[in-house]
Amino acid sequence: MNHTKDDWISQRAYSLWEAEGRPEGRGGGHWAQAASEFERLERTRASVDGSELVAKLRAAARTMRAAQDSSPAPDASPVTKTSVRKLGAGG
User: Fold this and answer.
1) For the chain, how many structural domains are there in total?
2) Is residue 55 one of the residues assigned to a domain?
3) In this structure, is residue 78 part of a structural domain?
4) Threshold 0.70, pTM exceeds
5) SS3 letters across 48-60
6) What's the pLDDT band for 66 if we cut at 50, 70, 90?
7) What confidence category does residue 83 fall into, taking pLDDT thresholds of 50, 70 and 90?
8) Distance, CA of 16 to CA of 65 (rounded, Å)
């Protein structure tokens, strides 16, 4: 069943009202809370086929590769007794 934004908010507000014991005069507060929840859901909703998530993951991977490519290469010099003594670990 396809619900509109107002349908979803109305049903959620009613649900909140019932959960609180059907208090008098709280309809506006329940409606505002439901509308806020709907907006949060809309902001975090993924596309039906996941294409938005795939695009974000690919962009993140490109950024990580670029950062790795621009970082200096680790020192590949071998560890020797002399280098260990310089560090104060041997004798």
Assistant:
1) 1
2) yes
3) no
4) no
5) CCCHHHHHHHHHH
6) confident
7) low
8) 47
